From TrEMBL:
Protein name: Threonyl/alanyl tRNA synthetase SAD domain-containing protein
Alphabetically ordered keywords of this record: Metal-binding, Zinc
Pfam family membership, one: tRNA_SAD
Cofactor dependence: Zn(2+)
Domain Threonyl/alanyl tRNA synthetase SAD residues, every copy: 168-195
Listed PANTHER family: ALANYL-TRNA EDITING PROTEIN, THREONYL AND ALANYL TRNA SYNTHETASE SECOND ADDITIONAL DOMAIN-CONTAINING PROTEIN
InterPro entries documented for this protein: Alanyl-tRNA_Editing_Enzymes, Thr/Ala-tRNA-synth_IIc_edit, Transl_B-barrel_sf, tRNA_SAD
């Protein structure tokens, strides 16, 4: 099983290429002994970057293995793997912003049940608890901005059984295997693009700038 270096925030590492197989679509499926690349999952897109100067265009978990899809074959043996840092930062900021929405909405009696943190299509879905209070997009945005300005630190807990949790400041931790910012100030400005209740569920769409201001 591939060692998940991305869980510690790694962006680059010397790794061992243990398999490289051609795919029907012309790409090559590469397996590593350890990887700094975050695979697609948990509502977060995969990292991209390079392995031995070969472009990595997608990373996925398939049958329990992390597979790196590359544009060219990669020689077996030791190689240097480098994640695209700008892409990782953007995805981390989007993911952390989604968690912040979950934390803030929970304070007002709403429970997050589903989320995706995709560029241009990031959203969190909530259900109302007994204590639910009504907000609007502007109120939610203002509350999020307060916590971003407070620059609460990330609290990451990696348990021995592989279970991983992430929280910020005094907020309760959420289970998560994604990548995140070190402090909420790294998110920059979060914009609530839509706030809609339909069939008893609240859907909040949001975005962050490509680069934090």
């Amino acid at each position: 099983m591939t060692q998940a270096l991305y869980l510690t925030g790694a962006l680059a590492a010397e790794v061992e290429v243990v398999a490289c197989n051609p795919c029907e679509d012309g790409r090559f499926a590469v397996r590593l002994s350890a990887t700094p690349f975050h695979p697609q999952g948990g509502g977060q897109p995969s990292d991209t970057g390079k392995i031995a100067e070969v472009d990595v265009v997608h990373v996925a978990i398939e049958q329990g293995e992390i597979i790196h899809y590359c544009t060219q074959p990669v020689e077996l043996g030791v190689a240097f793997a480098q994640v695209d840092e700008a892409g990782r930062r953007y995805h981390s900021r989007l993911h952390s912003a989604g968690h912040l929405l979950g934390h803030v909405m929970h304070l007002f009696g709403w429970q997050a049940v589903k989320a995706q943190h995709w560029p241009h299509d990031a959203r969190v879905q909530f259900i109302a608890l007994d204590t639910a209070q009504q907000l609007d997009a502007q109120m939610l945005e203002q509350h999020c901005l307060q916590y971003i300005q407070a620059n609460l630190p990330a609290n990451l807990q990696q348990h021995a059984d592989g279970f991983r949790e992430i929280g910020f400041g005094e907020f309760s931790a959420f289970p998560c295997g994604g990548t995140h910012v070190a402090t909420l100030g790294d998110i920059g400005f979060i914009e609530i693009q839509s706030y809609q209740i339909k069939k008893g569920k609240l859907s909040v769409s949001y975005s962050v700038a490509k680069e934090a201001e």
